[in-house]
Design goal:
Helices cover about 65% and strands about 0% of the residues. It is mainly alpha-helical and about 190 residues long.
């Protein structure tokens, strides 16, 4: 996979905007998933490893580094067979990505983490973000069109309605114009 020729190979001209857009996308993905097991599990579940492995063919050292970082995050969840079949990638991770003293990325010993705990972790993170937005931006950050609507018939009917004084004065006139003067074909209405 990562031979010296691939890392330091001849530079084929490419669109540098596309290259650095890909690198920045990988950097953002790395920031979003680092130390968050629920998001790492989402990468594993949605099978990002084959896509990332194909990205290692690109001869750009920084792109390969961020791909290796993402594969390192996921490697403990892949299983022994994947690690055995992808030893060149595991070796490249070991050689090129920085490690911590207590890093156990190469071993699948995270058995105590249960899948449903990741959903709880993600929900608590979402709750914390929502609380921050409520504290910081009050109710002004929610577009009124997207605010929740009360759909319960009893609670809507039990709310007091304030009628304007003008409407109260012209109530009989409104009844004559809008209700009594309009002919209603009840057989047609009831047939629907």
């Amino acid at each position: 996979y990562l031979t010296l020729d691939m890392v330091m190979g001849d530079w084929i001209s490419c669109c540098w905007r596309n290259m650095f857009a890909c690198i920045n996308l990988l950097r953002i993905l790395n920031m979003l998933t680092k130390w968050k097991h629920s998001r790492i599990m989402l990468l594993v579940v949605f099978k990002s490893a084959p896509i990332l492995k194909r990205g290692l063919r690109v001869r750009h050292a920084m792109l390969q580094l961020y791909i290796l970082k993402l594969l390192k995050l996921q490697s403990r969840y892949f299983g022994r067979q994947w690690r055995k079949n992808n030893m060149p990638i595991m070796s490249a991770i070991y050689q090129k990505v920085r490690h911590r003293l207590t890093d156990d990325w190469a071993y699948g010993n995270d058995v105590d983490a249960l899948p449903w705990q990741f959903q709880v972790e993600e929900c608590s993170l979402r709750t914390n973000v929502d609380q921050f937005n409520q504290r910081r931006y009050c109710n002004h950050w929610i577009d009124p069109e997207y605010k929740p609507v009360d759909n319960c018939l009893m609670s809507v009917l039990s709310q007091p309605v304030q009628l304007s004084d003008e409407f109260k004065q012209n109530y009989e006139k409104w009844l004559e114009e809008e209700v009594f003067s309009v002919p209603i074909n009840w057989s047609h209405v009831l047939a629907r």
